[in-house]
């Protein structure tokens, strides 16, 4: 399923909000909003921007970490995964 990088969360839709947010964030990475090895906005910022619970943001980030789109550095934040080093 393709998501609009400028989309919003449809709380009444059939797709769970965490999946919608994961799709939107992945689309923003794909569009180049955030560069490889650079931090994405904080969880608190994403909570405010998308009007979802912090647990929803964390679950969305976990999905994208599992997909290899993002990586988390404890105490530092969540970053866009860059290309693999040779």
Automatic annotation (TrEMBL):
GO MF term list: DNA binding; DNA-binding transcription factor activity
Pfam families hit by this protein: GntR (PF00392)
PROSITE patterns, per the entry: HTH_GNTR
Residue span, HTH gntR-type domain: 15-83
Gene Ontology annotations of biological process type: negative regulation of DNA-templated transcription
Keyword DNA-binding (UniProt): yes
Keyword entries, A-Z: DNA-binding, Transcription, Transcription regulation
This protein's name: GntR family transcriptional regulator
Organism: Micromonospora rosaria
């Amino acid at each position: 399923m393709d998501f609009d990088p400028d989309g919003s969360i449809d709380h009444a839709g059939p797709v769970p909000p965490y999946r919608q947010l994961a799709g939107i964030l992945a689309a923003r990475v794909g569009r180049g909003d955030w560069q490889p090895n650079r931090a994405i906005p904080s969880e608190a910022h994403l909570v405010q921007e998308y009007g979802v619970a912090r647990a929803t943001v964390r679950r969305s980030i976990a999905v994208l970490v599992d997909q290899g789109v993002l990586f988390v550095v404890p105490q530092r934040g969540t970053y866009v995964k860059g290309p693999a080093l040779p």
